[in-house]
Specification:
The chain is mainly beta. It has 2 helices and 15 strands. Strands 4-11-10-6-7 form a 5-stranded mixed sheet, with no helix packed on it. A 4-stranded antiparallel sheet has the order 3-5-9-8, with no helix packed on it. This is Ig-like domain-containing protein.
Length: 202
């Protein structure tokens, strides 16, 4: 004798313990067997990397967010730069209740760059389900500013009336060389830095 049960429209509430009972007619003896039913929810999308900018200067903070689709079990998120796993110190601690995203922050150094002068960041989500393991990857290629042009640092995306705006303008290549006491005359050759707002001097 074979008993069969078919469960349709499985939901998260379907998960639990299933028990099969067999009753022997003559003795009314009951034989039972139980198994655990586990529902798996695969991620519906690949990870999404969010970056407010597409290029950075050497010495600047790079801040990225990786958002993964909802899944069960919850996916673990890992970061890579040029296919090299990043140190734990690059991970930013966030609210533990936000389980589907990870924040990355580090100071861009020359060691992060490829021979082509850019760097590739990869976010990987991994679901460690025993019967249905999943691995998804998403990559973003970011560039590096030409270090011989001025760079404005400290500008926010938006301001409110009455806010104080504090920004700096620098030329990284020249400043770095001055700090290293190399070609200091180039730094002296700069007469002034002029600021303009909507093309008008400020």
């Amino acid at each position: 004798m074979i008993g069969e049960v078919i469960i349709v429209n499985v939901t998260l509430e379907t998960e639990g313990r299933i028990r099969c009972e067999v009753i022997v007619d003559d003795t009314f003896q009951v034989v039972r067997h139980e198994i655990d039913l586990i529902t798996i929810v695969p991620s519906s999308s690949v990870p999404q990397i969010i970056s407010k900018r597409k290029s950075f200067g050497i010495g600047e903070h790079v801040q990225l967010i990786c958002i993964v689709g909802t899944s069960k079990p919850i996916a673990s998120i890992h970061w890579f730069i040029n296919d090299i796993s990043v140190p734990e110190s690059y991970y930013v601690k966030i609210n533990e209740t936000i389980s589907n995203e990870s924040h990355l922050e580090f100071i861009l150094q020359k060691v992060h760059l490829t021979s082509s002068g850019h760097f590739i960041v990869r976010c990987q989500s991994q679901t460690d389900a025993h019967f249905y393991p999943e691995v998804h990857n998403s990559m973003i290629q970011l560039g590096v500013w030409n270090q011989s042009i001025p760079v404005i640092i400290g500008l926010k995306e938006e301001y409110e009336l009455g806010d104080l705006i504090e920004i700096n303008c620098t030329i990284p290549e020249i400043v770095n060389r001055a700090v290293n006491h190399v070609e200091y005359s180039r730094l002296k050759s700069i007469q002034m830095i002029e600021w303009r707002l909507n093309h008008k001097p400020v």
